[in-house]
């Protein structure tokens, strides 16, 4: 299948389809949008999703009509997140379809009952009301990424993040010794790295007076970190070679230590240097250890 932007529907066309569908369907009483397209600070490009919520009287008729999503375009692939056996769902109040169309557009569409929408719409500061037939939705402030911004940590949260980083390093150490590469990479990327990302976000919060969002997975951190810091962070990502992993872990530890000390100083927190030194020394001991 060939792809190209020449047949990709424009934002104007997509919005006319989205709003027109709501206008012509009596079951739909309101429509609002959130996500990157309503975020004034998000870069604009053709890969931005249309995150749409239809406020409806009931969800059942939409769920049962399997062909209904096709009205929005030729579907390349679709996911039904509320049908997943791995995640809880509340189909009577909320149901979604994730659709990637053959023209390259993507829409994350959800139907929510009136009461459910009224209870939740104000939780996301990126919501924009596109249509409200009956005036059922509350007044929504001008969109901002406020609910997604870095939040100032408490000293307890700071200490917990540091402890989680240095404690879980022992799992990395033993995994490397055993050559359990998949376990090590899982521990690094989904546990240890998350604490580093958190500390870096708090540094960015201090630098920006907590006025910015770092984006999902820290994708916007490069805007506020120094070039040296950003290059160091990228160097913490590695392949499956054990030597390469060890080098990345060393860089990760150094960057975490520097950031944690800086954040502690700026916030008047106490940094547990002993905990860090003991954890790192264990990592290096395991690197050279032989079987007893």
Task: Identify the notable features of this structure and list them briefly.
8 helices, Four Helix Bundle (Hemerythrin (Met), subunit A), 43% helix, 6 strands, elongated, 292 residues, six-stranded mixed β-sheet, 2 domains, Beta Polymerase, domain 2
Structural class: alpha+beta
Task: Report how far apart the termini are.
Answer: 58 Å
Proportion of residues in β-strands? 5-15%
Summed up, the domain count is 2
Describe the structure in your own words.
The protein has 292 residues and is an alpha+beta fold. The chain has two domains: 11-147, Beta Polymerase, domain 2 (2-Layer Sandwich), CATH 3.30.460; 150-288, Nucleotidyltransferases  domain 2 (Four Helix Bundle (Hemerythrin (Met), subunit A), Up-down Bundle). The protein is built from eight helices and six strands. The protein has helices spanning 11-23, 60-64, 114-120, 155-178, 181-208, 227-234, 242-267, 273-288; strands at 28-34, 50-56, 75-79, 94-101, 106-113, 128-132. A hairpin with a 4-residue loop joins β4 (94-101) and β5 (106-113). α5 packs parallel to α7 (242-267). The mean pLDDT is 93.
Produce the secondary structure layout.
Blueprint: H1 11-23, E1 28-34, E2 50-56, H2 60-64, E3 75-79, E4 94-101, E5 106-113, H3 114-120, E6 128-132, H4 155-178, H5 181-208, H6 227-234, H7 242-267, H8 273-288
Parallel strand pairs: 2-5
Antiparallel strand pairs: 1-2, 1-6, 3-4, 4-5
């Amino acid at each position: 299948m060939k792809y190209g932007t020449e047949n990709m529907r424009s934002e104007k066309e997509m919005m006319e389809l989205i709003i027109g569908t709501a206008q012509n369907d009596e079951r739909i009483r309101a429509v609002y949008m959130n996500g990157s397209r309503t975020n004034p600070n998000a870069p604009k490009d053709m890969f931005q999703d249309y995150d749409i919520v239809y406020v409806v009287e009931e969800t059942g008729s939409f769920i049962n009509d399997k062909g209904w999503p096709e009205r929005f375009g030729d579907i390349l692939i679709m996911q039904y997140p509320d049908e997943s056996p791995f995640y809880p769902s509340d189909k009577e109040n909320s149901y979604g379809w994730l659709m990637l169309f053959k023209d390259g557009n993507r829409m994350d569409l959800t139907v929510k009952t009136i009461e459910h929408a009224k209870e939740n719409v104000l939780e996301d500061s990126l919501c924009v009301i596109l249509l409200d037939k009956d005036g059922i939705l509350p007044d929504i402030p001008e969109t901002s990424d406020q609910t997604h911004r870095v939040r100032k940590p408490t000293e307890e949260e700071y200490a917990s993040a540091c402890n989680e980083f240095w404690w879980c390093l022992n799992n990395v150490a033993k995994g490397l010794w055993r050559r359990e590469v998949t376990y090590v990479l899982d521990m690094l990327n989904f546990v240890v790295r998350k604490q580093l990302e958190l500390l870096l976000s708090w540094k960015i919060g201090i630098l920006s007076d907590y006025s910015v969002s770092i984006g999902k997975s820290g994708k916007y951190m490069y805007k506020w970190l120094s070039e040296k810091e950003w290059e160091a962070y990228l160097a913490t990502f590695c392949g499956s070679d054990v030597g390469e992993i060890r080098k990345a872990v060393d860089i990760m530890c150094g960057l975490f230590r520097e950031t944690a000390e800086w954040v502690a100083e700026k916030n008047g927190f106490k940094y547990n240097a002993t905990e860090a030194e003991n954890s790192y020394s264990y990592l290096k001991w395991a690197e050279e250890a032989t079987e007893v």
